[in-house]
């Protein structure tokens, strides 16, 4: 019987055995935090008592951002006004900030430009890629498990260029690519399952067939090494509001391989990408290099918030981030196995380190209600339809104590919300 509408059944007490193991896990988590070489980075962020495991959706606020934005508004805009386009470096911010992201995704300077949303950059990359592909190409391949926007944009780009779209599971792309394939658009980490796709292998197979590789790095940049230059990726896009902590709606980026830059014909050739933007020439002449990826006037406030957010990466190696990410997700999975009632959740994130991103996704009945219960108790992850709980681990600020607490609270919520019980109804009880 419900005590009141929406109030779950009383929790079934964990066994004394589990309580003893929990005490051991807490002690273990504290030791792991003490030994963690990245632990001090947490102080670079504004955090509270909430266990925040949604940095794979919206990264936490770096402490330096509010002060920087206050200065941009009061001084650069308020006092310098138009002069800031040159004197405060506003005009060149898209390339300058691209160069700050570049080392995190394995790119040399001059290969990344920041601006627009990921969706818009997918459009630029796919149409630009098709325009560089061989004449006989008739199709593009799209990751069948992609975040939906990439698929929507790719279908529109294909319609505009007269090509067909073929959805293919990432693991099948190497076998399915043919000499008629212009390019494949693939997510590096699957947003739903957290599975890491084989960027080097798929890129190599695409190149062997004469196709270009276009990668969406939204769920990998800032969480693990990407190696764009090393693996000869052609084009890549990604957002900056997840593991790069740029803030809500912060601008995305576009990577273009150096040898392709002067062949890249943008489908959105706005004046910012012109060789002489202030020449006001009615005819379009593209700029050289990565500037070609720009479109219109950059969103300066968001862009400069992102720039300040990227300062947290000073002295941080992405390899160390990866090591901690795997340790955190391993530890969380162990804790879930200990605390969750048997059979209630199933990890859809691969256990194999070579195939895991930086999130753990658990399939679970009544996942929406379970996540609500977690959030009410101060553990914030998220939920994807129909039945996936997602827990994102941001090694810059997530601790092992966070991982243990999240799993323990998950166990409590699952015991309170039995699998077969209907959603608590307003029964007036
Ligand atoms: C893999 C992936 N691609 C694209 C997007 C969409 O990005 P935007 O809203 O910046 O266009 C997201 C958003 O979460 C994403 O996860």
UniProtKB/TrEMBL annotation:
Residues 1-25 are annotated as: Disordered. Its EC number is 3.7.1.3. SUPFAM superfamilies: PLP-dependent transferases. InterPro entries: Kynureninase, PyrdxlP-dep_Trfase, PyrdxlP-dep_Trfase_major, PyrdxlP-dep_Trfase_small. The keyword Ribonucleoprotein does not apply. It catalyses: 3-hydroxy-L-kynurenine + H2O = 3-hydroxyanthranilate + L-alanine + H(+); L-kynurenine + H2O = anthranilate + L-alanine + H(+). One of its GO terms (molecular function) is kynureninase activity. Keywords: Hydrolase, Pyridine nucleotide biosynthesis, Pyridoxal phosphate. The keyword Hydrolase applies. It comes from the Bacteria. The modification N6-(pyridoxal phosphate)lysine is found at residue 242. Its cofactor is pyridoxal 5'-phosphate. Pyridoxal 5'-phosphate binds at residues 118-119, 147-150, 216, 219, 241, 271, 297. It holds the Pfam family KYNU_C. Pathway: Cofactor biosynthesis; NAD(+) biosynthesis; quinolinate from L-kynurenine: step 2/3; Amino-acid degradation; L-kynurenine degradation; L-alanine and anthranilate from L-kynurenine: step 1/1. Belongs to the kynureninase family. NCBIfam families: kynureninase. Catalyzes the cleavage of L-kynurenine (L-Kyn) and L-3-hydroxykynurenine (L-3OHKyn) into anthranilic acid (AA) and 3-hydroxyanthranilic acid (3-OHAA), respectively. PANTHER family: KYNURENINASE. This is Kynureninase.
